[in-house]
Amino acid sequence: MAAEQRVALVTGANRGIGFETTRQLAKQGIKVVLGSRDPKKGEAAAEKLRQEGLDVVAHQLSVTDSGGIKILAELLESEFGRVDILVNNAGILPDAHDGSILSIDVGPIREAMETNAYAPILLAQSFVPLMKQQGYGRIVNVSSGMGQLSDMGGGHTAYRLSKVSLNAITRILANELEGTNIKVNSVCPGWVKTDMGGTGATRSPEQGADTVVWLATLPDDAPSGLFWRDRSPIPW
Q1: Which one from 19, 118, 127, 159 is the annotated catalytic residue?
Q2: What is the CATH number of the domain that holds 21?
Q3: Residue 117 falls inside a structural domain
Q4: Is residue 203 within 8 Å of 17, Cβ to Cβ?
Q5: Does the global pTM surpass 0.85?
Q6: What are the tens digits of pLDDT across the range 27-64?
């Protein structure tokens, strides 16, 4: 690894926005760890990017496995001595076809919270100490307009609640890390053509990843603790 080369971890990165985020970060000369729940899919995705000449390695990562997260943090510290960027991209949409708050079972809400909200807390607990060692860090929480209180609607209850929580996590982390040069921001990538977004979506993965990558590489004088879409802040 080149001296002082930044290291990024992108979760849920074997496809969709995570995969494109990995590609765009690696194109900026950053070494990217492609996290994937399925190790075979993760390795196949990383190999595809390596064939493009990009510096990408795959690691198995189930973001709901607290023990696995700690092991990965120790492994990356041992291997690279640093992790500078954390993109919390892994997410699920468990109630895509219903999700009315009047009829949804609590089970899907718990499931969404585990992956979309609790996992970023666990990841921050393991990786922020590495960022503090370097005096530098960028955490990007991939959220959604569906978690925007100022524009809250009905349906998709589990997903909405989990993304509202993720936005709160962003604010809490940014406040607690003020003055450390660790920037924490939420981003709405828009409606993107992915397995989750579906074929009717209006944006490409490249467009969806643009602001994610921009936030992951913010300069030291950039803001923290905001919610972004298309490189502009939006209301919570």
Answers
A1: 159
A2: 3.40.50.720
A3: yes
A4: no
A5: yes
A6: 999 999 999 999 999 999 999 999 999 999 999 999 99
